[in-house]
From TrEMBL:
GO CC annotation terms, alphabetical: membrane protein complex; plasma membrane
UniProt GO MF annotations: ATP binding; ATP hydrolysis activity; transmembrane transporter activity
Record-given protein name: ABC transporter ATP-binding protein
Highest taxon of the lineage: Bacteria
Originating organism: Maribellus luteus
Length: 225
């Protein structure tokens, strides 16, 4: 098992006061290595909140998050940052690329906090991924000089640059037109299959959800299939 969420509770506001509102309640979730799942649900049901917990961007009030059997719930902020950098890749609705950097520089950016120089092996991996998603020609262009679909493909490559075990995607096709959304959906699926990376994606897109191995609905604080 890659990831397990045990009896997770998470809300906003001060617990025990009127301001408190529970969003996730005794929620369970398991994910196997290489497994692809979609999380769907009504607006405000807590999908982003859940993704933030899975992505170690936030901590639950109660319950445990286990990654490869290890409890990461008690990790400090620094430990969580190291954990994210090593094991996870993120793709958001808006690409979050650095506007002043080229496609190539944006892709290599996550490797820089590890200090030292970027290795030939890492550059080869970047080149392989960029070619695979079909944007090698654009590698010297800045985000403002690329289409929305090209930016989003760059974001997918960037998410894979650290060879993560899990990619978390929050509405990755949300800002794309139908054609580009379909292309990105195929790409995410293919890369996940080829590289054996697990994928958890929050989406409103039925097309994207159907391409995944499983679909869960988040409602009333819990997941159901
Ligand atoms: N930082 C916060 N402080 C207070 N309330 C919050 C905060 N973040 C989210 N919420 C509330 O928690 C609930 C769940 O929000 P969340 O963004 O996880 O839902 P969602 O399912 O991702 O929604 P959408 O599909 O609209 O993006 C919402 O009612 C939201 O208003």
């Amino acid at each position: 098992m890659l990831l397990q969420l045990q009896k997770i509770t998470k809300g906003y506001g001060e617990p025990g006061t009127h301001s408190y509102r529970a969003v996730l309640k005794d929620l369970h979730f398991t994910l196997n290595p290489g497994e692809k799942v979609a999380i769907v649900g009504p607006s405000g049901s807590g999908k982003t909140t859940l993704l933030n917990l899975i992505g170690a961007l936030d901590q639950p009030e109660a319950g445990k998050v286990l990654f490869e059997g290890k409890d990461i719930t008690g990790y400090s902020k620094t430990e969580l940052a190291t954990f994210r950098n090593k094991h996870l890749g993120f793709v958001f609705q808006m690409h979050h690329l650095m506007p002043q950097l080229s496609l190539w520089e944006n892709v290599l950016l996550p490797l820089l906090p590890q200090g030292n120089k970027i290795t030939k092996e890492q550059k080869d991996w970047a080149e392989y991924l960029i070619k695979k998603v079909g944007i090698w020609e654009q590698r010297h262009q800045k985000p403002s000089e690329m289409s929305g679909g090209e930016c989003q493909r760059t974001a997918v490559v960037r998410a894979l640059i650290n060879k993560p075990k899990l990619i978390l995607a929050d509405e990755p096709t949300g800002a794309l037109d139908e054609e580009n959304a379909a292309a990105l959906t195929d790409l995410l699926k293919k890369l996940s299959d080829d590289e054996g990376v697990a994928l958890v994606t929050v989406t409103h897109s039925a097309m994207l959800a159907e391409q995944m191995d499983k679909k869960y609905v988040l409602k009333n604080g819990k997941l159901s299939s």
